Amino acid sequence: MEKATVTPKQHRLLIVTGLYDLEKAGNQTLRRTIEGYRRASWRVDMFSFMPGDYPNLIPPDALGPEVRIKRLPAFLDPLLRAGAALRDRLGRARRMGAASSQEVEYYGEFNWFGRAVYLVFLYLVLAPIQALRIFWHAIRSRPDIIYGLNCHGAIVASLVGPLFRIPVVTRFYGVGITQSDLCSLRRRLWNLDEVSGVKAKSDLLIMTNDGTRGADVARKLGHQQSEILFLMNGLELGGRSKEDALKGGAVARRSADDDLHLLMLSRLARWKRVDRGIRALAQVASSLRSRVTLTIVGDGPERPALEQLAKDLQVADRVHFAGAVSHSETSKYYSSAHAFLSLYDVSNLGNPVIEALSFGLPIITLADASTDDLLRNEFNALLVPKGDLDTQLPEAIQRLAFDLLLWSALSDGARKTFRTDVWTWAERMEVELRAVERLQGATRT
Fold first, then answer.
1. Does the residue 66 lie in any domain?
2. What's the domain range around 363?
3. Per-residue confidence (pLDDT) for residue 98, from 0 to 100
4. Which residues, other chains included, contact 299 with Cβ-Cβ below 8 Å and sequence gap of 6+?
5. CB 197 within 8 A of CB 188
6. 216 shares a domain with 251
7. H helix runs in 142-273, sequence order
8. Taking the CB of the first residue and of the last residue of the chain, which one, N or C, has fewer CB atoms within 10 A?
9. Are residues 266 and 222 in the same domain?
C-alpha cells in the first residue's frame, strides 16, 4: 500500500510596516527581506498604512501568490492625507538658504508643530487602527511570527503578539537617535516614536549595522545582548558570484585627460546633505584643469532647493539630476562614475556605499566613525574630518582628479573590501532565517 505524502505546514510571517512600503524605486531592503522569506517557503502577509494609489509603490500582486500586500483601506485615505497636509503646511522647518552649510539632524525637516502632529497621528490614529487590523488578521490566520518594521511596526507588533502568544520580531534599518539623546527628557519626547519603537518588547530585535550604533541604543533602552541580532545589509547579486559581479560592474576607466565623474545616490532629504557635494564641486570647478561633474540619483523634497543651489553657485552645467530610477537601472550610474560621495549628517554606511564598493568605486565620505566597520582612509576611501569639510572635501576631490595612482589604489581597495567584508543578500538572509527558526523552536518548547 502506497504511503500518503505528508506536506509540511507552511510557515506564516505577518509583517507590520506602518508608513513603510514596497517601492519601485528607492530603498529595496524590505523587498529583499520578503523575497528571502518567500524563497525559504514562508507565506508572507504585509500590512502597511500607505494608500493604495500612493506614487512609486509596487502592485499588490507583484511578488507572487505567496506574498499578500494589504494597504490602507480606501475609506481611511482622507484621514491620512489630511494629517500629512497639516504637517507639511504648518510643520515644515524653515528652509535653509542656498549659502547655508548648517548641520541638519535626522528629524530636522520639521518644526515642533510638525513633530507634534506626526506623534499624535502615530499614537492616536496609526497605531490603534493598525493594531485592530493585525488583531483581526491574527484571529483568522494565526501567523507563526509577527514582524514589526521600524518604530511604527514595532509598536503594533509588540502590542498584538503577546495577546496571541506569537513570537515578535522587531526590525530596524538603523536609528536616528543617539545614546546622548536618551539622557535628556526633552530629546526623548522629541524622538518619542523612535524611543518607544526600539524599546518595544520583542523576542528578537534585528538591528541594521548602518553606522548609527543602533545596538548600543537598544541595550541602553533595556534589550539584552542575547535578544539583538546586529547585521550589516548584504548586496543582492541576482545569483551571481562576487567575482562575476565585479567583472560585470567594472568602474569606468580613466586617463589623465578624462573628466572626473562623481556620483551621489539617495533620497533628497535635508539630512542626506547632497548640498555638500554641490558646494564642494563649485569650490574645485575653477581650479581643475579637467572637468569634474556630479550626477545626483534620487528624488525628494529638497530637489528644487538643490537645483537652485547649483544655479546660484554657477555649476548647473556640471550637475545632472537623474531623478528617481528603479533599482535595476542604478547600475549604469555606478558603472559610469569614478567616485562615490556620501556626506550624510547621521550615518554613511547605507546600501549605496555597499553597492558602490561592488563597482570598485573609491568613496569620499565623513570621518565620523559611522563607516569604521567597512571603510579605511587611503585604502578604499578618503575620509574627511567633519569639522573641516569646507576645506578638505574639495581637496579630496582634487586629489582624485589629479592623482591617478591614488584613484587606482582606492578602486582596488574597494574591490578587495567587497570580496572579503561584504555579505551577499542571500548570506545575510540565511543568518536572519536561522535566528527566526531558533526563535520558533524555543517558543514551541
1. yes
2. 242-421
3. 42
4. 267, 268, 323, 324
5. no
6. no
7. 150-164, 185-190, 192-199, 214-220, 242-248
8. N
9. no
